[in-house]
Amino acid sequence: MPNRILRDTALDSDRIASVDEASEVLFYRLIMLADDFGRFDGRVAVIRARAFALRQKVSESDIKTRLEKLSTAGLIFQYEANSKPYIVIPRFDQRQRAEKSKFPDPPDGWQSSVGQVTDIRPASAAVVVVEGVVEGEGGRTAKTPRSQGSRLSPEWQPSEGLKAWASKKRPDLDIEETVEKFHDWWIAKPGKEGIKLDWDATFRTWVRNERKGNVDDTPMPDVVVSKRCRYCSAPAVGSVGGIDHCRDHGDQPYDRKAA
Q1: 0.90 cut: is pTM over it?
Q2: Are 37 and 171 in contact (CB under 8 A)?
Q3: Using an 8 Å Cβ cutoff, are 91 and 121 in contact?
Q4: What does the alpha-carbon distance between residue 186 and residue 157 come to, in Å, rounded to a whole number?
Q5: CB–CB of 36/94 below 8 Å?
Q6: Where are the domains of the chain?
Q7: How many H helices and E strands in the chain?
């Protein structure tokens, strides 16, 4: 089993913070148990025996409850194949040592029901990326190719954990209406401005900047500013290498292609 290394950025992850401490511990142990495809046996008894072999006080009922919380937060996806349960961790794209997972494939389109939290990318050593930060074994920074981003999928919906965060962050907003406006705006956005690296992060920025009682479909950033962040379209506060960025993305690495 390859090593998995987590950086301290997990401490600032909104999705991880949305679950209780016991569920968070299970999430990290599932990362260690998952194969190179991010999959593992979904049977509660098996997970309890493997993840908590020396913790006899942890019951199967505890594991079931924690799995449900992780699934709700979008940290894992639970599915069935051949009448047996399995789990998969979203965006677990580590360089594969095995050509094929020993666990069945999840159903087509399952990624649209979860958001990106854990991202394991190819590198010279086994790595774990949390909220986009990569570290290789021994503390060495792993060189990984930058994603070119994607357009918003018509099937995209924020997870329950992300909705809970939005409700807590902006209790003055109608979250369902905000999701609808966000979805319609970005589906209709033409050209490269409609391509983003992380749609959950883009939604969080949208929520932070949405005006209370906004009566039209135009988000505030596009009304009051002429420059927007390359990564999420929030108001730009600076520029690095010719790329405008907001407060949250000022430390993004320089992207020559974007420039």
Answers
A1: no
A2: no
A3: no
A4: 12
A5: yes
A6: 8-139, 150-245
A7: 8, 9
